[in-house]
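Checked the freezer inventory, then went back to the computational side. Two predictions to log before the end of the day. The first one is the construct we discussed on Monday; recording sequence and C-alpha cells without edits.
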Amino acid sequence: MGDLLNNDEIQTINIEETLQNSYLDYSMSVIVGRALPDVRDGLKPVHRRILYAMDKLNLSHGAKFKKSARIVGDVIGQYHPHGDTAVYDALVRMAQDFSMRMQLVDGQGNFGSVDGDSAAAMRYTEARMTKYAGELLKDLDKNTVNMIDNYDGTTKEPDVMPTRAPNLLINGSSGIAVGMATNIPPHNPTEIMNGLKALLKNPDIELSEIMRHIKAPDFPTGGIIFGKKGIMDAYETGRGRIKVRAKTHIEKKGHRDIIIIDELPYQVNKARLIENIANLVKDKMIDGVSEIRDESDRDGMRVVIELKKDAMSEIVLNNLFKQTSMQTTFGIIMLSILNQEPRIFGIITILKHFINHRKTIIIRRTIFDLEKAKARAHILEGLKKALDIIDQIIKVIKASKNVEEARDNLVSEFEFSQIQAQSIVDMRLGKLTGLEREKIENELLELLTLIEYLESILKSEEILHGIINDEFDELLVTYTDARRTEIEDDYDDIDIEDLIPNEPMVVTITHRGYIKRVPLASYEKQKRGGKGKIAVTTYEDDFIERFFTCNTHDTLLFVTDRGQLHWLKVYKIPEGSRIAKGKAVVNLLNLMADEKIRSIIPTTDFSEEKGLVFFTQKGIVKRTNLSEFSNIRSNGVRAIVLDDDDALITAKIADQDIKYLFIVTKLAQCIKFDIEKTREQGRSTRGVRGIKFKHEDDEVIDANIIASDEQEILIVAEKGIGKRTDAGEYRLTNRGGSGVIAMKMTAKTGKYIVGCLMVDEGMDMMALTKAGKMIRVDMQTISKSSRNTSGVYIVKGDDVASVSRCPKQPIDDEEEDENLLLDPSELV
C-alpha cells in the first residue's frame, strides 16, 4: 500500500483542462469518425465500411444475394465496432428508394416503407450492391486511395472511396455530431454531372451559371420546392432554408371536390400524416373534410381526402399545408469533412473538391497502371532477348545445379535483371514457337504504346481533364434520370387569409374596450321602427360605442383619440356569438394607458390614389396619402398631431372620386367644402381648420366624405329620429366657416346629433342603442326631407349610441310589414 501512495508516482492535473481535452477528443471522434460525411465520396464511415465489406464478400451488382446478417457481422467484426442495429439501420436506409436518390444497396425482402414500417430483421433480408454503388468502389484495387488500419489493427480499410460519382450531392447526407449538424439534400444525378462538366470547362464559373445546370435539390419522393432564395443562399454560403410541399391534384365526385395527394415532401411519414390530418379534422382545426383514406399501391402514392359539399378545396388545401407536414421546411447545412476538419461548403466548392478528388484518383490509378505496364514490358523485353539467344540460354540452364544458380548465371552472363532471369527460367517450351514469339512482340508493342499514353496523362492536365470529362459523359449516359421535384420560382408564404372564407362581419366595440366580430347573417333584417335584437351583453357600466360591417380579409386601421394609427386584420379579431362580450382590444393592439380608439377603418389596399382624412373634435381636418400607412409598427405610428385640448373624432378613406368633406357638430351645425381645400400633408402634421363653431360648448360629432351632390345624407339624432337629405341641399362653403343647420332639433329629436351616413341603395342602416340593441333598417324606407327638418322615428324606446351602414339582406317573406310601418302622425 505504501508503494501505491508513493508521492513520486502521483501526478497533479487540472480537472477543467482534462475534461476539456477529453471532451474535445470525444467530439472530434464523433465528428470525423461517425456523424459527418467526407466531402469527396459523400459517405460516413459506417456507409463506407458497409460497402467495403460487401465488396470483400464479392457482393457486386449481379452477384448472388447474401443475408444482411452476414454483411452486418463482417462490418462490426472487422471495421465498425458499434452496435449491429445501428449498422443494419444504415444498410436498410441505403436500400430505400424513398430515402436515397440513387440506392447503394439492392435489397431483397422487407426494407421498410414510406409509412414508417420497420424493415424485417437482418436474418430475413438479403442484400448486394447496386450498379451505382460499384461506381463508388471502382479502381479501389489500384492503390487509388490510402488504406488505413482498422480499429484493432488486424486488417486495412479505405480512408475514402475512389468514387466516380459525386455521391455527396446526389444522395445528400444528414447527421448530428457534437456542436454541429449536417443536412445536405439529394440532387438529380443528370444535373450534377452537367454542373461538373460546366465547372471543369470553366473553373471561374459563377453560381448563376452553375444553377442553370443544377436548378435545385431533387428529392426521391418528389414534391414541389417553392422559391429560389433559400436555394441560392445554400448554394452560395452552405446554409439555406427551402419550403417543400406535397404534390396534389383535385378530382370531382358529383358536386364534391376530392383532394388527391400524389407525392409527399422528403422524409414525411405518410401514415403519421394521415393520422395527423384525421386528428385535426376531429378537433375541428380543419373544416370541410368528410373522409380520408389511403389508396396507395405498387403503382404509386394516392391519399384521398374527400370534402364536404360546401367546402372549398383551395381553403382546405391551404389549411392542410399550413397545419400539417404536407408542407415542410428543409434546412440546408452543407457541412462535411475535409482533411479531418468539418467545414461548411457552397456547392461550387463541393464540386471543385470532387474534381480534385477525381484528379488524385486518376493520377494514382495511372501511376499504378504505368508501374504494372512497365514491369510487364520489362519481362517481355527479357523474353524477347532470350528467344534471340535461346540455344546459349538452354546451355547455361542445363549446366546449372538448381533454379537459383541458373537464374544467377543468366544475370551474370547475359546481363538480365533478376526479374527477367526468373521469368526466363519459368518459361515453358511452348514459348519457343514462332507464334508465341509473335505474341510476345505484339504485347510488348502494345505495352510500350500504353506506357507512352499513361506518361502523357501525368504530364498534361488537359489530357487529365479530358479523361474526367469522358467519365462524366459515361455516367450521364448510364444514370441519366428525369427531375422528380418540381420548382416554383416565386413563393409567397401562405397567408392565413387563404385559410379563412371572405365573409361579411359585424365588428362591435364597447365603451370599456371589448371588441368582437359576428357574422352579419346572425342579425335579422327589420324595417324602421323595429325593436331589434340584443347585439352584445355588456357590463352594467358598459355600452356599445361603435360598430361597423366589413369582410374578414379586410385590413383595419385603428385610429385612436391621441392620433395614433394601428394596423390589424379583421380575422384576427376574435369571433363571438351575438350576445358575447368580446375580447379586450388592449390584448390585440399595443395601446397606451387610457388611449381610446376613435375610428376603425376597413380597407383592402394602401393605394397612393387614396387618402386618409382625419377629423378632430375641435374641427381640425387633415388629409394624408394612404400609402404612408402601409408599414405600421407594432406600437403604431403617429397619424396626426393634436392640440392638448383636442381629440380625434373619426377618419375616412377618400379616393379620387371624392369631391367634398362634410362635418356635423353635436349641436346640429354642419359644413360642406371642397376636399381640395385640404392639401395632402405628412403623418406628423396638425392639419387645418375645417369648421368654426357657433357655440363654445359645441364639438364635432361626426364627419363624412361626399362624391356628388346627388348623394343623400342620413342624419340621426339621439332620440332615434332620422332624415334623408340630398347633399346638394347643403350649401358649399369655404373651409373653416360656420356652415349651415344640419337638422331641426326639437324635444322629440333630443338635443344632440349622434351621426351621419351616406345613403346607398345597396346598403342598409344599422343603429345601435345605448342599451346594446341593434336594428337593421332599409334606408330607402326613411322619408326624404329637406335640410332644415327633423325626419321620422328610426328607433323607438331607447337612445341611439351610433349608426353605421351594412350590406342589404333580403326581407323575410313571413315578416308582417304592416306591424313595422309607422303611422304618419309619428312624423316630426
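The second is the one RB wanted added to the comparison set:
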Amino acid sequence: MSQSRSWRFTAGVALLAGMSSHVFAAEVLPKPDQPFAGIVDVDANKSKPDAPKNVTAPKGAPNIVLILLDDVGFGATSITGGPIPTPALDKLASEGLRYNQFHVNALCSPTRAALLSGRNDHQVGFGTVAEIAANYPGYNARWPKSAASIAEVLRFNGYSTAAFGKWHNTPIGETGPAGPFDRWPTGRGFEYFYGFQGGETNQWQPKLWRGTTPVEPWGTPKQGYHLTTDLANDAINWLHQHDATASDKPFFVYFATGATHAPHHVSQDWIDKFKGQFDQGWDKLREETFAREKALGVIPADAELTPRPAEIAAWDSLSPEQKKLLARQAEVYAGFLAQTDYEVGRVLDAIREEGKGDNTLVLYIVGDNGASAEGGPEGLDARATDGSPVSVKGRLERAGELGTDSFYNHYSAAWAWGLNAPFQWTKQVASHLGGTRDPLVVSWPSKITDKGAIRGGFRHVTDIAPTIYEAVGITPPDEVNGEKQAPLEGKSFVDSFSDGKAKSKHTTQVFETVGNRGIYKDGWWAGARHVVPWKTFERFGTPIGEHPWELYNLDKDYSQSRDLAKENPEKLKELQALFDQEAKRTNIYPLAPVPALLTPGSTEPKQLVFREGTNRVPVLIGPRTGSRSHTITAKVEIPDGGAKGVIVAEGGHLGGYVIYIDDQGRAVYETNAHGNATGRIVSAATVPSGKATITLDFSVDGDEANPLIKVARGFGRIPQPGTARLSVNGASVGETKISNLYTNYHETLDVGSDLGTPISDNYTVPFKFTGKIETVTLDLK
C-alpha cells in the first residue's frame, strides 16, 4: 500500500478483546496533499525548502485511448469479414487482439454510461437514451456521484484526460448554455472536451461545445468541413499540445465519434468508392459476410447463419426502383464508415508518430450497439410535411443528395440486419445478439505478444473500467470527492492479453432496452423481444409479454440460432427468475416507462422573455410551441436606413419557424416541416425606423374542448396545424394556414441570429440582426 493513500477504520467492524487489531484500507480520491517535509526557520539559511508534489501515475503506466463508434454492426467492418474495408482498424487488430464475444447494451446512452462507469446502465440512471429519460431511478439520466467515471479516477491518479465527440450522458434539461455542468464531460473528470451533446447531430453543421462554451464549426461543407475530420484534427492538436508540455504524463483520450449514427452524412468521393457494391441486396450480403467470417476464424466453424425475420422483406420482393434507392442508402453508409476509419486512423498515427505507440493501450469498441434499424423498412430521407416518406419515385429522384445535409438520412432496417451477420435483430433489441454483440479490438504493443489473435469468452462493456484500472496499476476507489462508491459490476480481462485460454470472470449479465430484455448466465442466454426498433414508441401501449421468451446455449450455439425454450423449460424458468432478480437489483423495473418528455408540461412558464444574444437553447428544453397556441412579441429598434436579419429562430432547415427582416426591410414569418415550406407571411411595407413591435400570433386549429387537442397541447411535443397572423406596430400585415408547426429537435432557439442550419432558404446563416433587439416575449396560451 503506497504512503500516499489515506487510511480509516471500516465502519461496523468490531475489534474483539484478545484479537489483534486490523485496520482496513480504503482508496480515497482525490489523494491528500503531501505534508511539507522541509524546515521553516526565521533564518532562510537554516530553512530547507520542499516543493509541493503533484500526484503522479504509477511508474510505467500506459497511455489509454478508448475509441467508441456509433451504430456499427458486428458484420460491417473488414476485421470481422464485413463488406466495408477499414484498413486502420485492420492495422490495429494486427498489432493486438480481436474479441468476438464482447457485449454492449443495445442503445447509445446506456452503453456509454456503463462503459465510463463500470456499472450497469440502469444502476447509473441510463436504462434508455437521455432524450426519453423517465422519472424512475433506472431511467432518469442522472448519473450518480457514487459511480465515478474512468476519467475521474485516472485524473486523480496523475493522468491528463480529454474527450472528443459524442456525449450522450447529460440530462436533456441540463444541456443548454446555462448548465448546470456537473454532468457534462468536464464535470465527469475530463479536463478537456470538444464535441456535441445528445444522440446525433448534423455532421456538416453540428452544434459544438468546447468545454461548456458553444462554438461554431470553422467552416461550411463547401469549404471542406466535416465533423469527424474536425474531431480528429482537434484530438491530434490536443495530443501534440500534451506532448509539447507534459510528455512525461500519461493521457486518457476518449474518442467517441457521432459516426456512424444517422444522419449518414459523408462526401461524394467516399460514397463513390462503393458504387454498385450493394446491388446484390441484404440477403446475399449476409451470406457473403458469413462466409468471410468463417474464413477469418472470427466466428466458430460450427456457427450457423440466422434467418431473416418475418418483419424484414426479402430483397427479391422489392421493385427495381426500390432496389436502386436502397442500394444507394447502403453505399452512403459504407462511405461514412470508411471515412470514419480513416479519421480514427489519423488519431492513432499521431500517437505512433510521437513515439508513444508502444506503451499506449488502445481499446476500440466497434459500435455502441448493433447496426441501427431505426430507419424503418424503407429508410429515411425525403419526407412530406407530415413526416411520412414521399413516393419511391420522388425519393429516387433525390437519391443523389443522400450524404449531403439535405436530409437526416438513414438506411433501411434490412441493411442493419444484413450488417449484423450472423446474428438476429439489431440495435434496441437487447433480447438478441444483433443488438448487443460488437467487436472489440485491444492493442498494447509493448505488452501483447500474441498479435492478431482472436479471443473468445463472454465480455461486457462494464469490464472496460476494471481492465483499465488493472492495466494502469491502480485500485478502484472506495470514495471519490466524499462520495462512497458503488461496487464495480465489470471484471478485468487483463489476463487475456497474455493468456489465450484465460476464462471470462464475467458470468452473469442482465440486458434491457425499451422493454426488450435478456439475461446471460454461464454460457446460457434467455431473452424476450417487446417491439421492433422502428416502432419504438408503440412500446408504451403494447403489453409486456406478447412475445415469448427464447433460450439459447451460447457455448454450443455462437450465433443464437437454435431456440431451446421448448426443449429445456426448466432452464428457461431458472433464467427468467434470475432476470427478475437482477432487474430488481439494478433498477430495471418498470419496463418501458413513459418518458418524462411526454408528460404534460403544466409546470412550464406561461411567459418567457428572451433578449438579444440568447442562443443555443436546445429545442427539447425550449418552449413547447409545436402544439400550443402562442404569441411572440418582438420589441426592436430599427436604425435610420433600415435593418435586416433574424430576430428569433427556433429549429432548422428540416423543421422550424423564424421571424426576420429581409434585405428589403420587410417583416417576414416563415415555417417549414421536414424540409418543406409550410407557411410564409411578408409585410407589404418596410418596418419603419425607430422602436417597433413585431407580433406573431399562432392559434392551433380544432375544438378547444376536444380531449385529444388538450392532450397534444399538454405534451407540447406533437405538432398541430393552425393559423399564423403577423402584425407590425399593431397593424396586421397578413395571415396564413400552417399544416404542421414542427421544430426539429436537433436544432436550437436563437435570438438575433439563426445558428445551425437555416430555417428559410431566403437567407444565409447566421443572418445576424443589424438593428437592436430589446426583448422577444413568448406567451404560451
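For RB: The longest helix spans residues 320-353. The longest strand covers residues 676-686. Let me know if you want it refolded.
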